[in-house]
Amino acid sequence: MRIKILTLLIGLIGVLGTQAQEKQWTLRECLEYAIENNITIKQSALNLQAAELDKSDAFGNFLPTVNASGSNFWSSGLALDPITNQNRTLTFRSSSYRVDVGLNLFDGLRNVRRFQRAKLNSLLAQYNLGKSKDDIALFIANGYLQILLNRESLKVVEKQHDITLEQLKRTKELVDAGVLPQGDLLEIEATSADELTRIVQAENSVQISLISLAQALLIKDYENFDIAEQEYLVPGAEMLGKPINEVIAKARESRYEVQIAEQNKLIAEKDLQIARGAYYPTLNAGFNYNTRESGARPIDRILDPDNPFDIVPIGTVQSTGETVLGQDPNIISVESSRRPFFKQLYDNDGISYGLSLSIPVFNGFSVRNSVKRSKINVKRTEFQLEQAELDLDSNIYQAYLDAKGAAEAYEASLVSVKAQERAYEYAKDRYDVGLTNAFDFSQSKFRLENAQSQEVRNKFDYIFKLKVLELYFGVKIADIKL
Which UniProt key words apply to this protein (predicted)? Predict the structure, then answer.
């Protein structure tokens, strides 16, 4: 029974392992996985979260500040009673409490400008996140197409090698029959050995490109990583039929490069407004509530009940010299009972409120220099925006010409393949009847293989460059179809 269970477990593990190895990634799956897991994109997403927090901070500057504090102390020996403000020698406890409220009424509109800047910075972080996604997606798509190119190149070499093996068998039969010389057989065998070497190289290129894509996707299981086998047709050239000015206008509306430069310019202008706000006065309003209590017994001053008055001389009769006596109240200090905690807080509380105005008079040129630096930064971002637009125009022109050139190269390679196929068939027929030698036949076959390989390279080069042009036109990478 245990042996049967163990066998079933081993079989189940084998099936699961086989299913894991059979996982083949489509281009869309690669793009979605990269956008979800790429570190650069995650960092851009964190920058967006930080920008949203900055916007929340800027909004909070419009709200009043409320702070509460409290203290509780024990004093022993000669200490100041916080209730009577008299020094007393005893051990007692005392506490105090306060609430402060502050509100900025005017600061040269800097809080308003900071909130506007925070919103611009949040939008900039969104653009940077979008650009990171597009850059990574384009990089992944290029790596994916590179695998397809290498596999197609491998198929070309393998197909030619199959033909060579058939020709090798045919040549051996003709040599054995004495129709062809031994040198022709050696020539075909040399061609076969060379093709085997190129097959190994092509297989290595496929494996290296697979590993490169897996690394870009942060997938560590290189050995089992593979992409889906499917036919990738050459897309239509509708994009090449659009006027270049239309492509440029569309790109300026949708490309993140220009939008990022525009946002940086707007942020620099907002920084200049914030810097100028320091020239204006600052007006703040404040309110304070405070109270206190003490655990010490309060001291009351009362008439001495046992001797309420003292007889003291108050003057002299000038005519008789008789002393005039009077009464002076005999005041004594006595400790009374402790007052309730909350009654003390109620009796000893107080409030204060008012306005404070700060007028900048002279600050060592710091405000003036800050304004000048902001003006310089505005000029710098204006130049960066102009450069971004020029670079975008240049890149679009280059992408447009590259796509057109790739389309023409692909069409030419199709014609070349057809011509080389006819030349190869002609050489093969002549070789079969002994009208040409193995070297000339191998050269014809080699030229056909080169033409087919070049067709594959031109095909995927054209696909990629056309997709780049579509990106400039505003087509999102997730909507691009291969």
Answer: Cell outer membrane, Membrane, Transmembrane, Transmembrane beta strand, Transport
Show Cβ contacts of residue 422 under 8 Å, excluding neighbours closer than 6 positions: none
**Phi then psi for 222, rounded to 5 degrees?**
-65, -40
What is the torsional sign of CA 48, 49, 53, 55? positive
Total residue length of the chain: 482
Helix, strand, coil distribution of the chain in percent, nearest 5: 65, 15, 20
CB distance 316 to 324 below 8 Å: yes
The letter for the amino acid at 68 is: A
Region of 359 on the Ramachandran plot (φ > 0 left; ψ -120 to 50 alpha; else beta) = beta
**What is the rounded average pLDDT of the residues 153-165?**
84
Q: Which stretches of 304-447 are assigned E, i.e. beta strand? A: 309-316, 323-329, 331-335, 350-358
From first CA to last CA, the distance across the chain in angstroms is: 53
pLDDT at position 429 over 90: no
d(CA 248, CA 135): 19
- Of 78 and 1, the structure prediction assigns the larger pLDDT to 78
- Residue 279: count other Cβ atoms within 10 Å of its Cβ: 12
**Tokens linked to 313:** 């001389």
Give the Å distances, CA to CA, from 194 to 150, 201, 446: 18, 11, 11
Q: Which residue type occupies 359?
A: I
Quick one: pLDDT at residue 135? 87
Contact 83, 299 (CB under 8 A): no
Residue 330 vs residue 403, higher pLDDT: 403
User: What's residue 431's pLDDT?
Assistant: 74
**Is the pLDDT at 184 greater than 90, yes or no?**
no
pLDDT in tens, 305-360: 777 777 777 777 777 777 777 777 777 666 667 778 888 888 888 999 999 999 99
Coil, helix or strand for 296? coil
Q: What is the pTM of this model?
A: 0.76
* Cβ atoms within 10 Å of 128's Cβ, excluding its own: 20
Mean of the per-residue pLDDT values of the chain:
83
DSSP 3-state of 474: coil
Q: Which amino acid is it at 98?
A: R
What distance in Å separates the CA atoms of residue 341 and residue 344, rounded to the nearest whole number?
5
8 Å CB contact between 469 and 403: yes
Domains in the chain (CATH in brackets) are: 1-37+110-267+387-482 (1.20.1600.10), 299-335 (no CATH)
Q: What is the DSSP string of 198-237?
A: HHHHHHHHHHHHHHHHHHHTT---TTT--B-----PPPP-
Three-class DSSP category at 243 = coil
